[in-house]
Amino acid sequence: MGDFGELLGILTIILFGIAISNYLVKFVNRNWGKQIAKYPRFKSVWTLFMRFIVKYHRYFGVAALLTLGLHFYIQSTFVYLSTSGILAGSLLLTQFALGVYGAYVNKKRKGFWFIAHRTISALLLIAILNHVLF
Question: What is the pTM of this model?
Answer without folding.
Answer: 0.92
